[in-house]
């Protein structure tokens, strides 16, 4: 896949650090010109400098993803600097974890604004461009295991990331005629974002010291480096990957997975409809045996 993206232009939001940074580097290595977006100008400039120093092409779009103007700015930079756009990776995000009754309005809004409104505003701007340019393209969203399964302490984050997976499903249908594929990555990687999650602080510190991530974490939890996640974004933007749409694909450490979409798993009919007693009976005799667990499997 070394030159899989030659001639392409990709915007990666939140690519000054972490997974976004690794994706931007991998895309540049694969031949793409990349627009580095981050709310932090210093890390964005440093990321672009490193790509250019390695012989790649990069431009910077400093903006706080979440508002329409920020999305428009990223696309404007891509068009002004490189004359086209082939793909968007909507990766920017923040964590404000708290148990439900301690979640503030500000924290909730901030997480929803960055992840969900950010994916929406960037995805909509990209869709408008792709439809007008009539050239097809790729939109890669970033969901999370918390969004697929729920997670204690992540009210805003799990809601936002479930919403992001929903965007991938809906947009894959809405944009198929325009030749635009839309998928969601479900990543796990040791970054500063996960440092605040109980039990992971030490792993992040060790990784920052340059120590390898233990095999068990890589293999069982799928917890590796941001560089382990990046090849999936490159693949989805490549000729072969562009045929895939509407999928939630997990990657991290040694693991690569395909997530199911929610669907009915038990179904009963009652002529004329249901009442509380008949629901209780159906629950006891049919539905209850299909109950599902929620939450993230903790194998640590
Ligand atoms: N690390 C994981 O295990 C993991 C798991 C699931 C999902 N994710 C998702 O992957 C994405 C990247 O996370 P990460 O772990 O690399 O985090 P990170 O904190 O290392 O990097 C996030 C980057 O986004 C930038 N950013 C934050 N808000 C922004 C905004 N409004 N506009 C532009 N840039 C902004 C930050 O400055 C930072 O550089 C996020 O969407 C995150 O939710 C990460």
Question: What is the element layout, followed by pairings?
Answer:
Elements: E1 9-12, H1 18-29, E2 33-38, H2 41-53, E3 57-62, H3 68-82, E4 87-90, H4 105-133, E5 137-142, H5 145-149, H6 155-174, E6 180-187, H7 201-208, H8 215-221, H9 226-237, E7 248-252, E8 255-258, H10 276-287
Parallel strand pairs: 1-2, 1-4, 2-3, 4-5, 5-6, 6-7
Antiparallel strand pairs: 7-8
Helix pairs in contact: 1-9, 3-4, 4-6
Bound molecules: nicotinamide-adenine-dinucleotide.
Helix content range: 40-55%
- The Cα radius of gyration reads 20 Å
Q: At the third CATH level, what is the topology name?
A: Rossmann fold
How do the helices and strands follow one another from N- to C-terminus? Answer: EHEHEHEHEHHEHHHEEH
- For the record, the count of structural domains works out to 1
> Count of DSSP E strands?
8
Q: What is bound: which ligands?
A: nicotinamide-adenine-dinucleotide
Q: Residue ranges: pLDDT <50 for 5 or more in a row?
A: none
Largest sheet: 8 strands, mixed
- Strand proportion, as a percent range, falls in 5-15%
Give the CA-CA distance, first to last residue: 34 Å
Query: What top-tier CATH class fits best?
Result: Alpha Beta
Overall pLDDT score: 96
Structural class based on helices, strands and sheet pairing: alpha/beta
Shape: globular
Widest sheet: strand order?
Answer: 3-2-1-4-5-6-7-8
Q: How many distinct helices? A: 10
CATH superfamily: NAD(P)-binding Rossmann-like Domain
């Amino acid at each position: 896949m070394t030159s899989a993206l030659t001639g392409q232009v990709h915007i990666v939001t939140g690519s000054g650090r972490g997974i976004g940074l690794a994706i931007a580097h991998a895309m540049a290595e694969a031949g793409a010109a990349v627009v580095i977006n981050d709310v932090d100008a210093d890390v964005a400039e440093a990321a672009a400098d490193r790509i250019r120093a390695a012989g790649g092409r990069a431009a910077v779009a400093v903006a706080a993803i979440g508002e329409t103007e920020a999305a428009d700015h990223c696309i404007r930079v891509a068009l002004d600097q490189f004359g086209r756009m082939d793909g968007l990776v909507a990766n920017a995000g923040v964590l404000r974890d708290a148990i439900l009754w301690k979640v503030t309005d500000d924290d909730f809004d901030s997480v929803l604004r960055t992840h969900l409104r950010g994916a929406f505003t960037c995805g909509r701007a990209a869709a408008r461009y792709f439809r007008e340019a009539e050239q097809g393209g790729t939109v890669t969203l970033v969901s999370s295991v918390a969004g697929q399964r729920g997670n204690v302490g992540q009210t805003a984050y799990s809601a936002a990331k479930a919403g992001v997976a929903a965007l991938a499903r809906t947009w894959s249908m809405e944009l198929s005629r325009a030749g635009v594929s839309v998928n969601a990555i479900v990543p796990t990687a040791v970054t500063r974002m996960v440092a605040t999650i109980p039990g992971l602080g030490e792993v992040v510190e060790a990784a920052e010291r340059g120590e390898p991530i233990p095999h068990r974490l890589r293999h069982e939890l799928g917890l590796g480096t941001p560089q382990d996640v990046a090849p999936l974004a490159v693949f989805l933007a490549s000729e072969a990957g562009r045929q895939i749409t509407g999928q939630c694909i997990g990657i991290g450490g040694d693991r690569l997975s395909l997530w199911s979409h929610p669907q009915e798993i038990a179904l009963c009919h009652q002529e004329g409809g249901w009442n509380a007693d008949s629901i209780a009976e159906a629950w006891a005799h049919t539905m209850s045996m299909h109950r599902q667990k929620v939450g993230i499997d903790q194998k640590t």
